[in-house]
Specification:
- By secondary structure, the protein is mainly alpha-helical.
- The chain has two domains: 247 residues, Arp2/3 complex 21 kDa subunit ARPC3, CATH 1.10.1760; 218 residues, Hypothetical protein af1432 (Orthogonal Bundle), CATH 1.10.3210.
- The longest helix has 33 residues.
Length: 502
């Protein structure tokens, strides 16, 4: 039976495909664990398996059970992960990486030196908070199972303490990461999670100070505790360092849009924006203004403000193909005076598709490309349609003078459509008062409603009202009335500066 969720219709084929991919990654994970645990001692595999085969089998079954639970979690909570093989690979690559780091660092140096918050940070930034909480618990349990049933030399106390450390450090990292606005803040998170790590280590090892008969070889018990806490410090900070080192690789490999990458894409040094500023300065300034409007509109209806700003900055990049054919980049001479209305309309409407192609060719996030394609929907290009009507006595097909669509498919696309038109309409109307601004914006929204431009997205009448009010407030502040300054000519004299009215 097909189930609809997250805009995706699920069938038995979808379930079968995602299940097989999960099983494949589970086999890879177990194989990787086998290689890490035995290392170069493959000659002893037979002996070890005969002695501890039951433990290894039990550990494998437990990990399989956890992965089955993970599958059902994503099936019910975030089916988008299962819908794409790339997303499944992303989740398991993070787990594989955590396994490698835990084994190489934990068994070569010390179990407390592991980067325990690595999974939590990566999943939080690349996927989301709820999934990060679940994956943090899952990764902590997986390593606990391996420590307990598949490794010799790790005491029961260490197994349970590392489980608590992994869970608590990962959760704290998730809560703090929500406020992280720069890569430097991530280092601060690494330092912050050291506190619970070292506190747990201290409580575990404090018994060594109370037991006069137990001491670390060659050093006092107190020094041993400090050394263990030093490993905890290393593990906490290393979580942040490894995260910063690995994140760009994941962003590139899986084309993920993170808050850090989003800021890089919207900076003035971003490649396409830099080119837009140099070759189409009018379009660049218009996009900056639309970005300001999109931010206020997105905030008004609870949409992601950073995504709205990015979409606004890139929505018109298709104009780079023919920048001189757009009014904002022209001087006194209009190139369209030499062209037929049909050709002019083709050039104007092509910028939506050109923008989509340009963004995808630069491997930028898909939502930017989609909004560049959708931000005019199927709206008619009125100027050239009216011009063509004057030049013909017959009937014209308005579709030949309309954008090719599709209509906005998301609230963000609807926001960009409205903000793009509202900025141009208010500027063209020379609106200076709130009443004039509100009238121009209302006309923009009502026209698009009459032409059913919002029929394919989930924007509501309440959303449109909030967007309109936010735009009126913002545009009134931008295009406000200014007093006319008196025309005075200043001149210097021996006694000082004097002014004379002209």
């Amino acid at each position: 039976m097909a189930v609809k969720q997250f805009g995706e219709e699920w069938t038995k084929q979808h379930v079968l495909k995602s299940t097989l991919l999960f099983l494949l990654h589970f086999i890879i994970f177990i194989g990787l664990a086998f290689v890490l645990l035995f290392g170069g001692k493959f000659s002893q595999v037979s002996k070890t398996m005969s002695e501890q085969g039951a433990n290894y089998l039990y550990a494998t079954f437990c990990i399989l059970l956890l992965f089955v639970i993970a599958y059902f979690y994503f099936y019910f909570e975030n089916r988008d992960i299962l819908a794409s093989g790339k997303n499944i690979a992303l989740v398991f690559t993070i787990l594989d990486l955590h396994l490698i780091a835990s084994c190489l660092i934990g068994y070569k140096f010390d179990v407390y030196a592991r980067p325990v918050a690595l999974v939590a940070l990566l999943v939080f930034v690349l996927i989301g908070r709820r999934d990060a909480i679940f994956m943090n618990i899952l990764s902590a349990l997986v390593v606990f199972i391996i420590d307990t049933f598949a490794v010799n030399g790790v005491s029961a106390k260490e197994c349970y303490s590392t489980l608590v450390i992994s869970f608590s450090a990962g959760m704290i990292a998730i809560f703090f990461a929500n406020k992280a606005k720069s890569r430097l803040h991530i280092i601060g998170i690494g330092v912050a999670i050291v506190l619970p790590i070292d506190f747990i280590i201290f409580l575990l090892e404090i018994s060594k100070l109370l037991d006069a008969n137990e001491a670390a070889v060659g050093q006092s018990s107190f020094q041993f505790i400090l050394m263990q806490m030093g490993y905890g410090l290393f593990g906490g900070v290393m979580s942040a360092v490894l995260f910063l080192f690995i994140l760009p690789v994941f962003e590139s490999m899986f084309n993920c849009l993170t808050a850090f990458r989003l800021r890089e894409l919207t900076s003035s040094d971003a490649k396409i924006l830099k080119k837009l500023k140099a070759e189409a300065p009018g379009t660049y300034n218009h996009s900056m203004m639309v970005a300001q409007l999109a931010e206020s509109s997105a905030a008004a209806i609870g949409e992601n403000v950073d995504y709205a700003r990015a979409a606004a900055l890139y929505h018109d990049v298709g104009k780079l193909h023919y920048p001189e054919h757009f009014t904002e980049n022209q001087g006194e001479y209009n190139l369209h005076d030499e062209l037929t209305p049909e050709l002019s309309a083709d050039i104007i409407r092509s910028h939506a598709k050109d923008g989509y192609t340009l963004i995808r060719n630069h491997r930028l996030p898909e939502f930017l490309a989609n909004i560049a394609l959708e931000h005019h929907g199927t709206m008619p290009i009125r100027y050239f349609y009216a011009k063509a009507l004057k030049m013909t006595d017959g009937e014209l097909n308005i579709d030949d003078f309309s954008y090719m669509g599709p209509k906005p498919q998301s609230k963000l696309a609807a926001i960009i459509m409205i903000c793009d038109a509202a900025e141009a309409a208010v500027r063209a109307a020379n609106a200076r008062t709130p009443e004039q601004t509100e009238k121009a914006i209302r006309a923009v929204i009502e026209e698009r409603m009459d032409l059913e431009q919002f029929a394919e997205c989930d924007v509501t009448m309440a959303d449109l009202t909030k967007i309109r009010l936010a735009l009126v407030n913002t545009l009134t502040g931008v295009y406000h009335h200014r007093i006319q300054y008196p025309n005075i000519k200043y001149r210097r004299t021996e006694s000082g500066t004097k002014g004379e009215s002209e």
